[in-house]
Fold (R)-specific enoyl-CoA hydratase-like.
Amino acid sequence: MKRLFLNSVSSLKHYSSSASASNVLKPGDILKQSRIFSIAEVEDYSKLTHDHNPLHFDLECATKAGFTDTPIPGLLVASLFPRIIASHFPGAIYVKQTLEFRAPVFVGDDVVGEVQANSIRQLKDKFMVKFATTCRKDGGAVLIGGEATAILPTLAVNGIGHR
């Protein structure tokens, strides 16, 4: 019954936090969003990408692979990173992403995506920013780690202080 209910749940919570008091991105600043994925989103992702891996739909296949349930595709979970960046910096250009998948995500898990500015370099009228990227289960376990690079049109953070 719980799984049937969670299959229809899709949630996205916005957290914006910054180490600085201003609305200008600085190294060390962290931006977050929380998300609970639904089975409908996994199905939509599968249709869009043509990724029909039974691991994500067939419990028997998933348990044979060592999972306790059918995992959500890792790239769907990692889609939190460009979403966080673009929602705070409209017009951002995603240049690079590395990913390390450390633990599975299942329907109903509360996942927090986090991007932390590591370095900022000015390029004429734009900014090249390297971010540490992390997804965690609510409670701290690291699910996905990596690094992203994006070209931002400005360092003015859109949405600071919204929850």
